[in-house]
Each structure stands twice: as C-alpha cells, then as structure tokens.
Amino acid sequence: MNYTDAITGKNIVKKYKNFTLNQPQLHIPKGFTTALVGENGAGKSTLLNILSGVRLDYEGDITYFEGSESMKTEQVKERIGFTAPNDYFFSNWTIEQICQMYDVLYDNFHVQRFKDLIRELEIPVAFGREKTKRRGLFDRRKGSKQVNQLSDGNRIKLQLAGVLARDTDLLIMDEPASPLDPLMRDVLCDKIRSYMEEGDGERSVLLSTHNITDMENVTDYVCIMEQGSIIEQGFVPDLKEKYILVKGDAEQIPAVSGRLFDMTKNSYGFEGILLADHSEEVAGLGLSMETPSLSQICVAVMRNYRKSR
C-alpha cells in the first residue's frame, strides 16, 4: 500500500544504564491509526516521549508530516496532541485552571468543545451532582475538584478532553486505554474514529498498548516492539495474510514441531502461528487453518523473538 509519512525517523537512539532504544528506521503512515504494541519495558513510552517532544535527549533525526517539519518548529507542536499515563497536570490544579492553561498555550484550543467533552466523558468537576448542576460546569467555590482528587481513569479522560478540544493533525497517546473501564474504552475507540473521519485522510493517530485486544477494532497499522526496537510492522490485513493460525490434535504435534512460528499445546492438542509462506510444509496433515487475530499475531511474534535471542 502506498502512503506518505506522518512521522519519519532515522537512527533514533536513547541510551539508559540497562536499556537502549535503537530504531534505525521509523515510518508512521499518514491517515491511519498505528498501534505500538509491546510488553512493559519494551521501550514504547521512551519512543513516544521522543516523538511527542517530551524527551529531547536522544540521537537521530525525526521529521513530521511528510518530512517537512521537525519538533523544533512551533508549527509542528500546534499540530500534535499528546497524552501520557503519568502525572501530566499539576496535582492541585482544578479543571477550570487546566482549561485556562490550554487556552493560553494553544491557538487551536476551543473552550466550549472542551466543556462539552468534559460532560460527555462524565468527568466530575465538583463534589456532588447538585453542586455541579447548580453552579455550572466550572465550580469556583470550595467544592471544585482538583486533579489529585480524580481517579486514574478520569485523569486520562481529562487529557483526552484537552487534546480533542484542539484542532490537530496527529495524536500520540501512551497507553490511553489502560486505566479505563470496558465501557469507556469503547468511547475512546469511538472518539478515535470520529477524529480520523473528521480529518478526511489528513489526520493520524499513534498509540501504544501492551494489550492490543483493547484497541484492535480501531487499529490500521501495527508496530511490534521488543527490547528497544520494532521487530515487526505492517498494515493489519497484510499481517493477517502473512501469518496463519493452525490448530490440531495432540498426535499431530510431532509432525508440526519445528515448523510453526509459535505454538502452545496441552494434552488434547495444540494451536500455533505459521508463516503463510510455509503453509505447504504442513499441507495434507488435516490441520485446521484460520485467520489469526491481531492479538494472536503480536503474542506469537514476541514469543518467537524471545526464543530466538
């Protein structure tokens, strides 16, 4: 598939005492939702912090929007929204103060849209519904809630309200689904779809997750990360053609051992992932072959990588 890049990277390196991020080439497609998948500690947050401009102490070159701009320009910062799972806001700030902060920092921030998102995402702005209803959305009296009085899920929703209230071309989100309940994860997916549809092919999303099942239904492109590097990537339909889910009985295990990319087995049978290019090697064995889920592909790729190291 032909596409241009929302983000292009070359020789991105960040060294820590016991870990090194090392990505020789990075291409995040424009107009799609890309999921960066990997275990905890794989380097996802480090990479996203670099791409969002939070970290500047790295080696390499990164450009945005078809290679025309770098993070050094104010224009590119206006076009990017970022959410993170850590303490993003000052803990003693109220939601009204956060709204004022966004309004000062970004020319493309819309106050009314932010207020609408606060209501829609059901973020509590005061203690008790009656107070909120009586005094308006932003309660300046003693009942106003501060960031440190919100749950982890509501803090993430507050970040989402902030970035979605801006007119941006790229969203970078680090583990946005992790603290959300199942219902709110569906809402998050709906918001991502709406964001992309409103962009008419000009907007892009890059999000990280260690559980792709949460975000599979909005993911177009996948980058699987292990030990500081992307080890597999591609559009979801292409990956589902590259890998096959194979199932069989226990007595068939000896015939397929060593031929599968990854396998799990028990006393009754097995299932595993097979590279489609090797399907002829197991033809005629009476195996069940299915299209794998994106989660099954990601787990198999990560397991295989660990076995090969």
Task: Tell me what you see in this structure.
This protein is α/β, with parallel strands linked by helices and 309 residues long. The chain has three domains: 1-79 and 168-227, Rossmann fold (3-Layer(aba) Sandwich), CATH 3.40.50; 88-166, no CATH class; 238-308, no CATH class. Helix content is 31%, strand content 26%. It is built from ten helices and 13 strands. Strands 5-6-7-3-8-9 form a six-stranded mixed sheet, sandwiched between helices. Helix 4 runs antiparallel to helix 6 (152-164). The longest helix is centred in the middle third of the chain and has 17 residues, at 182-198. The chain is globular, with a radius of gyration of 22 Å.
Proportion of residues in helical segments? 25-40%
Mean pLDDT: 88
Number of domains: 3
Q: Considering the protein shown, what is the CATH homologous superfamily of the largest domain? A: P-loop containing nucleotide triphosphate hydrolases
Instruction: Enumerate how many helices there are, as a single number.
Output: 10
Low-confidence segments: 127-135
CATH topology of the largest domain: Rossmann fold
User: Helices and strands, in N-to-C order?
Assistant: EEEHEHEHHHHEHEEEHEHEEEH
What is the name of the CATH architecture of the largest domain? Answer: 3-Layer(aba) Sandwich
Alpha carbon gap, first and last residue: 31 Å
The biggest sheet amounts to: 6 strands, mixed
Shape call = globular
Radius of gyration: 22 Å
What class, by secondary structure content?
Answer: alpha/beta
Q: Strand order, main sheet: write it out.
A: 5-6-7-3-8-9
CATH domain class of the largest domain: Alpha Beta
Query: Strand portion, in percent?
Result: 25-35%
